[in-house]
Design brief:
The structure is a single chain. The chain has 167 residues and is mainly alpha-helical. The chain has a domain at 111-137. It is built from ten helices and no strands.
């Protein structure tokens, strides 16, 4: 039954004066120009007690219950974490130092001698290698010796070839 009444209503029930909406803009502009709207307003209509905003925060905190803060217990202790990380870093540092050092083996004189014999270097190539390695410059000293001429001649005749001397 209510539905039928709603469908049968032809008017809204609100009435406005004739030409109200056409002349509304003109009336509003005229009242703003004349300042009649502003002259009628003396106060904002709202009142607050004196010093209200200065004491608001304190009043709110009084009414709130202060809850006791529970202490947070950490699973990991900071000191032990620092100790463990320091030990790990030092072990890593020592490991890096000892692993990265190149290992050099000392060469024996026999090993060098065998190498020079097997590679069949002539005296010029050998001299060039010794100069490049700075062996002659650092450790080479001339020792004066007194040889007898006869001993030198005997040595040269027995241990040298004439062909190698002529070269």
């Amino acid at each position: 039954m209510k539905k039928n009444k709603l469908n049968s209503i032809k008017s809204t029930g609100f009435k406005t004066p004739k030409d109200y909406f056409e002349s509304f803009d003109d009336k509003l502009i005229q009242s703003v120009v004349d300042n009649t709207l502003i002259k009628d307003i003396d106060t904002s209509g709202f009142k607050t007690p004196e010093g209200y905003f200065y004491t608001l925060e304190d009043n709110i905190l009084k009414h709130l219950k202060l809850q006791n803060e529970t202490p947070v217990i950490s699973i990991f202790r900071r000191k032990s974490f620092y100790y463990v990380s320091g030990i790990a870093a030092s072990l890593l540092f020592l490991f890096a130092i000892f692993i990265s050092q190149p290992k050099t083996e000392e060469l024996s004189a026999d090993l060098v001698q065998n190498y020079l014999i097997e590679t069949e270097l002539n005296s010029y190539e050998l001299a060039k290698l010794l100069v490049d390695a700075n062996i002659l410059e650092e450790n080479f000293t001339i020792i004066e010796t007194n040889y007898k001429e006869e001993n030198l001649e005997d040595y040269l005749l027995e241990n040298s070839d004439i062909e190698s001397i002529l070269e």
